[in-house]
Amino acid sequence: MSTLRPALAAPAFLVAALLAAAGTPQPTFAQPGNAQQEAETQIRHAFTLQHQRADDALEWMQNEMSPQGTIELQRATNTLVLRDRSSVLEHLLALLRDFDHPRRQIEFEIFILEASRRGSGDPRSELPAQLTDELGNWLAFTSYRLLGEGQFEATEGENVRYEIGTEFRLGFRVGTVLLDRRLKLYGVEIERSRSAVLDERVFNGHLNVWVGKPLVLALPYPGSDASGLVVAVTVRSPREDGLAAGD
Questions:
Q1: Distance from the Cα of residue 225 to its chain's centroid
Q2: Whole-model pTM?
Q3: 94 vs 244, residue with greater confidence
Q4: Contacts of 163 by beta carbon, 8 Å cutoff, 6+ apart
Q5: Which of 3, 5, 133, 188 has its C-alpha lying 20 to 30 A from 145's C-alpha?
């Protein structure tokens, strides 16, 4: 007596082959692309600053982000909204926490000099030795005449107006000292008042200064290749802040 056995299911590869032969479309499974994976791993984080201005950190943060990262400034709440990969975001938040320190007092020392390529006099002896070295390293002038100097203190974020000597006025907003000891001065305006020319603006722009290192700015005199105006700015921070040069 013969026994009937149930038919075995056809192997999966045989079914697929039969479907392909019949022209039946086979199901496909999409693989997530790199862009999709990148978007899925990005994290959004809002950071509200308590001490410093968020817009002062904006450019710095943009330079530290990945190409796929984005940043949004919310001025009303002094907040930065960051979106980036988790590892990058951790780095950005660490930088922001250091950036958002209580505002520090900054010491400024400024010299304004008339420089010339004529003459052999060298009145640089009346200047600080570090500034004298900077002048010799970067400029080709042979003589200098002191027009004005000033020393004052200001706080991070403060707007400054200061008269230097009898002819010059200086104005800017103090930025925030960064981890690399760089300080940005915003909207620097240097004006000169003389009997023949009233309120001549000799410079207008932003400046990046490093704590403890003189910044030497050479400005040409109109119509003169042999003379110029030199503005030297040195900033220092109290040693207890750990920002003085050499710390």
A1: 33
A2: 0.74
A3: 94
A4: 150, 169, 170
A5: 188
